[in-house]
Amino acid sequence: MGFLNTNVRPTLVFFFVCFLGTLLAGGIHQHTTMTGFLSTGVLWAFAAAFFYALTSIMGKGIQILSPLLTTVIQTTLGVLLLIPLVEWSNFVHLTFENWLYILVTGFIHTGFVFYLFFSSLRELKAQTIAILVFIDSIIAILLDVTILNYHPDIYQLLGIFLVFVGISYSPKDERILEKT
After folding, report:
1. What is the CB neighbour count within 10 angstroms for residue 58?
2. DSSP-assigned states of every residue in 101-141
3. What CA dihedral angle connects 60, 126, 26 and 102, to 10 degrees?
4. Are the C-beta atoms of 167 and 135 separated by less than 8 Å?
5. Of these four, 76, 114, 141, 159, which has the most CB atoms within 10 Å of its CB?
C-alpha cells in the first residue's frame, strides 16, 4: 500500500474491518457451496447496498434541489423503473384496508423517511454517513434479538464486534475522509 498516504490507510482499515463484520453478521459463513450462497439473496443485498451507497453519494452532492424535490424525483424514478417487474395478479384480491396499508407504508415509511434521509445528508459528515451505513445491519440483528428472540451464532457476534471495532478505529479527523 505504498501508493496510499498515511491519512488514507486508517480509512481503509475502518472500511475493511466493518465490511468483514457486516459479512459475518449477515451470515455469509452459513453457506458451504456457491449455489447455496447465491440462492439466499445475498447478491441482491449487496446490489441494494451498492445502490444505497450511490444514492447517499449522489444525495450528498445535490445542493441545488430541495430535499423534498429530491425525494419526489428519486421515488418517482424508482416506481417507474420497478413497474415492469410487478406481478399485478398478486394485487387483485386486496381489500381497501390492504391498499390503505400499502399507501401508508409507501408515503410514511418510504416518502417521509427518504425526505429525512436527503435532508440529513447535507448536514452530516462523510464519516458519520459511513458509520450509520455499517450500523444499520447491526441494529437489524439487535432488533431481531430483542423483539423476535433471535439468537445470533458466534460468527454473527464476531461480525457485530468487528463492526464496532472498525467504527471505533475510524479516523477522528473528519478532513481525512472528506479528502478521500
Report:
1. 13
2. HHHHIIIIIIIIHHHHHHHHHTTS-HHHHHHHHHHHHHHHH
3. -30
4. yes
5. 159
